[in-house]
Input
Amino acid sequence: MTTRAAVAAAVVRLEAAGVPSARHDAEALAAHLLGVRRAALFLCGRPLDAAAYARLVERRAAREPLQHLVGTAAFRRLELRVGPGVFVPRPETEVVVDAALAAVAGHPAPLVVDLCAGSGVIAVSVATEHPGSAVHAVERHPDAVKWLRHNASELAPHVVVHQADVADPTVLGKLDGTVDLVVSNPPYVAEAELAEVDPEVRDHDPRVALVAGDDGLDVVRLVAAAAHRLLRPGGTVVVEHSDRQGESAPAVLRAAGFRDVTDHRDLAGRDRFVTAVAAPATP
Output
């Protein structure tokens, strides 16, 4: 069977399994096996290992994440290493990085903290797209920290990694009141919503990276408290949230004492993240 025929058969199999990006994933798996870019898949002339390809296709049909199968996740200008134990970056977070970069665009050497850093997708993006920034990445889950350390060392060695819990009031204590930007993509799925989540996420991303209490805002509250402590007056916080939290997530930041609280939508028009500014200290 030719590569083209094998991929065509894989597309049919993945569509039948309900995979929403069947053609992309079938081609990406074949390109991974052949060690070529997807754009060169049908031009490389190398033979495809049909048995190995069939095994990968079946794993994807069982809704194992594509990124786990190929070992990487593409995000903006990056290709990060990911796998079991860490949240797989999603394209929706790219607009969060846009907002983070915009917040420090006029600062030649901003001090940035990424809370709930996971694979390091936000921290590494900011560090590489704003080379003058000093970036600290905080993640508590040991499995995720392994991926975070790998990606930081490989792509942005100046990112400082901290294995710590954002709920700990001493985390980055020496930076209190000095940080220009706090950014976070925290867990934000409510307990009752987990069954509705795509199986790639529900069954393979760590539960600790997904679920955040009855309303999905438990960790957003912790991030707001940490950001309030870390930011200098006039510093900015950017927090991703679910498309059902366009009002409730901003309310958390207002309650924490931030001003200029504004919610923003992603490229699909869904509520996606909130920005706010740290108010001057009260005399």
